[in-house]
C-alpha cells in the first residue's frame, strides 16, 4: 500500500488499464504477461519510455502504447527517475553559459565569459 501511494505521488505519465480494456485485450495481455495476464494490473505508457522492456519483449505493444504489467513497475520507476535525473543534469551541466544566455535574452548587453 505504501509503495503504491509513493508511486502515485510521483505524478508519472502512466495510465492504468481499465477493466473494460483488459477484457478487450485479455488474450494479448495473457500472451505478454504469462498465464495470469487478466488477473494482474497493467499500465499503459508510450512505448518509447520503456525501451528495455520492449527489447526484452516483456510488454504488449499496441497502438503506440506499451502495456506494462504491474510486476514491471519498478522498471518504470527506474526509467522515469533516470530520465528526470538526465534532464536535471543537462540543465546544471554548464550553469555559466545558461546564465549568460538568460542574461543576453533579457538584454543586459555584451557579457564577459568566466571560466571555472
Characterise this structure.
- The protein is α+β, with helices and mostly antiparallel strands and 116 residues long.
- The protein has a single domain, classed as Transcription Elongation Factor S-II, Chain A (Up-down Bundle).
- Helices cover 49% and strands 13% of the residues.
- The chain has a four-stranded antiparallel sheet.
- A hairpin with a 2-residue loop joins strand 3 (60-62) and strand 4 (65-69).
- The longest helix is centred in the last third of the chain and has 20 residues, at 73-92.
Give the CATH architecture: Up-down Bundle
> Largest beta sheet, briefly?
4 strands, antiparallel
Proportion of residues in extended strands? 5-15%
The CATH class assignment is Mainly Alpha
Overall morphology: globular
Largest sheet: spatial strand order: 1-2-4-3
Number of beta-strand segments: 4
N-end to C-end Cα span = 48 Å
| Integer average pLDDT | 77
Order of helices and strands: HEHHEHEEHH
Sum this structure up briefly:
Helix content is 49%, strand content 13%. With 116 residues, the chain is of the alpha+beta class.
SSE arrangement:
Blueprint: H1 2-8, E1 15-16, H2 19-24, H3 26-33, E2 42-46, H4 51-55, E3 60-62, E4 65-69, H5 73-92, H6 95-105
Antiparallel strand pairs: 1-2, 2-4, 3-4
Descriptors:
116 residues, alpha+beta, Transcription Elongation Factor S-II, Chain A, 4-stranded antiparallel sheet, 49% helix, 13% strand
Amino acid at each position: 500500500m505504501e509503495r503504491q501511494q509513493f508511486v502515485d505521488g510521483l505524478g508519472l505519465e502512466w495510465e492504468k488499464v481499465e477493466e473494460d480494456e483488459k477484457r478487450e485485450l485479455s488474450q494479448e495481455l495473457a500472451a505478454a504477461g504469462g498465464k495470469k495476464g487478466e488477473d494482474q494490473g497493467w499500465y499503459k505508457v508510450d512505448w518509447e519510455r520503456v525501451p528495455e522492456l520492449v527489447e526484452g519483449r516483456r510488454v504488449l505493444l499496441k497502438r503506440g502504447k506499451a502495456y506494462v504489467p504491474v510486476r514491471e513497475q519498478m522498471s518504470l520507476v527506474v526509467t522515469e527517475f533516470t530520465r528526470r535525473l538526465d534532464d536535471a543534469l543537462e540543465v546544471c551541466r554548464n550553469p555559466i553559459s545558461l546564465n549568460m544566455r538568460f542574461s543576453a535574452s533579457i538584454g543586459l548587453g555584451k557579457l564577459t565569459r568566466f571560466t571555472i
